[in-house]
Every structure is written in structure tokens, then in C-alpha cells.
Fold:
Amino acid sequence: MVTVSEELRWEERTSCGLKETEQYDCESVSSEGHMGTKTRYASYEWELTYHEALLETDWTKIEERIQAAEAAMKEKLHHFSLNHGGTPEENHAIEDAMNGLNVLKREVVGWRERRAG
Structure:
């Protein structure tokens, strides 16, 4: 089980706003059963909502998390369309994240089918 701490700490923000790093703590249980806290970093402002969707363990909340992550990424892409297209690295990261959310959506559909069936 993985939970994201409610407390967010801004680690770094550049003046252009294209690269932000948010630090947050995750509690996790290793395969050996040991509790631990890991610090994760989000390189872009939309990435936090993406990580929250990936780390959500409550199936009843996961679709809401996916929608929030998609909205944040679409907003960033819209911003790029108005401002020279963004960096190739961030565009690639958004593409990868969208693919990850598509996999997660398929898992949600499977969960619903198992629950209904």
C-alpha cells in the first residue's frame, strides 16, 4: 500500500515556470514487509497529479485522480500551444505519462468488470 503525504514542499522553481520540482513523501511496504518512506521528486507541475493517480490504491477514487492528471497535462499542452511548444523533454514526458494513464484506465475497466461479474 502506498500513500502520498498531504504535506508538499517546494524544492525548486525556475523563473520560466517550465521546470518545477515538488518533493513529497511516500510510505510504502517493501516485499519483505518493512515500512519505509521514500522521497520522490516531480520535475514538472503536472507530474504530481500524475503520480497521485499512479499511486492511488482506492479503486473508488482512481478515476478522479486519472481525470485530474489528464486535465493538468492537457492544460500544460495548451500552454505549450500558446508559447513555442515547450521543451522536447517535457513533451516526451507528457506523452509517456498519457500512455501510462491509458494503461491505468484499462486496469480500472478490468476492476469494474470483475466487480460486476
